[in-house]
Amino acid sequence: MAALKALVMVLVLHLLSGGVTTSKTNNHNTAFTTSSVKYQYLNVQKTITAIKTRPSKATSYHEMSKNTDATTDVNSKLRLKLVHRDVISVGNYSDHRKRLDDRMKRDLNRVRSLTRRLSHGGGVSYEVNDFGSEVISGMEQGSGEYFVRIGVGSPPRDQYMVIDSGSDIVWVQCQPCNQCYKQSDPVFDPSDSASFAGVSCSSTVCDRLENAGCHSGRCRYEVSYGDGSYTKGILALETITLGRTMVHNVAIGCGHKNRGMFVGAAGLLGLGGGSMSFTGQLGGQTGGAFGYCLVSRGSNSYGSLVFGRDAMPVGAVWVPLVRNPHAPSFYYVALTGLGVGGVRVPVSEDVFRLNEFGQGGVVMDTGTAVTRLPFAAYAALRDSFIAGTAGLPRTTEGVSIFDTCYDLFNYNMVRVPTVSFYFSSGPVLTLPARNFLIPVDEMGTFCFAFAPTSSKLSIIGNIQQEGIQISVDGANGFVGFGPNTC
């Protein structure tokens, strides 16, 4: 314990002095390093073996969720298990290449939708029904999105919900369902809940929904998505149960007509920055703070989703959030540069800057898989990485959206240059090798997991976020990385 306290103190001292160091906690390296770290090692064969392993049966997660899926402590910190989509979708588990191709197709749709909504700048009204198309990539078989299990109603009915850092609404499918997609659990029936209460059109809660509809005195909502998918229904107040903790009077959408690619989960748990998201509605109960750790792809272990100010870890490295008044749901960060092998690549900070019209900037998004960068930034990063991997055999062609791939079948371990994000005020986030060089098939083909975009918007996707403890202090305007991993 004394050694751990000393370690934390060293990290804090380095932060105060403007530097960042590496440390080790519970045998996991923290994400932040000095720029002098030039190389990392990737265990190729272990990674290939992991993607060939079928996930545990979903029933085991159902059983565990009954008693151990959420915990609370004396400081009112609430922790939920966060699971990868593959843990739930074992019924039609396909080979890795097929799952990757499907995931990338949905990822392209997701990025197009985000780009369309976040690139118009001033004069565009960003309403609650504009944010949520990431659900599309979250629900399809093998998509790689992340789910929690919560109780809805009184008594609580357990439901899988996809987490969404860019959405300001909570919704579930509801009976009677005129049109419902397939989900893992029975569709929620509000007539069986003693706490379900519809919201009237004159309610202040209904007023918080822009363009809310009204039918027979009931407040109606409609959330539409980029591919034509949608959920429609009434707005209601309901009790949400997280482990042994009940949260009363949460405004949720009760969807009676739902269409699209929402296979698997019952709905969506919005974690965006607006007042109608789950975190926004918790408000003072959690101090506007939550954290998450996305477990690595192909793992049978669990990540975590934690609410409460006491969830903010000691030793995290904090970078400021950048507010975009045109898109308040999203979490923008002040990225200033990129690095390969401990050296900054030649990219101007202006490439990542959010302008006064709400254009550009860098969004952290749990719904996008692969990090997107404006072409100039991507090309500089890719070319520097290629130069640092000159000794590794390149494939003659790219795979899916990736243009830089390697044939590593005959390798057990490879040394690759580090890839880093540079933030304003000094912090440097150095990614684990598995977060930027990923397997795309079971034959040893690995690709550089970044992609270019023709827009000004950059998106830090969930592949790059995996395994890193991320904390969001929305009330004070900061996001923290580390000190632990998952």
Describe this structure in words.
The chain is an alpha+beta fold. The chain has one domain: Cathepsin D, subunit A, domain 1 (Beta Barrel), CATH 2.40.70. Helix content is 20%, strand content 33%. The protein is built from ten helices and 32 strands. The protein has a six-stranded mixed beta barrel with strand order 6-7-14-8-13-12. A four-stranded antiparallel sheet has the order 20-19-25-26, covered by helices on one side. Strands 23-28-27 form a three-stranded antiparallel sheet. Strand 10 (213-215) and strand 11 form a beta hairpin.
Question: What is the beta-strand fraction?
Answer: 25-35%
- Overall pLDDT level: 80
What is the rounded Rg?
A: 22 Å
Instruction: Give, in spatial order, the strands making up the sheet with the most strands.
Output: 6-7-14-8-13-12
Highest CATH level, the class: Mainly Beta
Distance N terminus to C terminus?
20 Å
Largest sheet: 6 strands, mixed, barrel
SS elements, strand count: 32
CATH superfamily: Acid Proteases
Amount of helix: 10-25%
Global structural class: alpha+beta
How many structural domains in the coordinates? 1
CATH structural fold name: Cathepsin D, subunit A, domain 1
Count, helices:
10
Residue ranges: pLDDT <50 for 5 or more in a row? 1-30, 57-61, 63-68, 72-76, 121-144
Named at the architecture level, the CATH assignment is Beta Barrel
> Shape, please?
globular
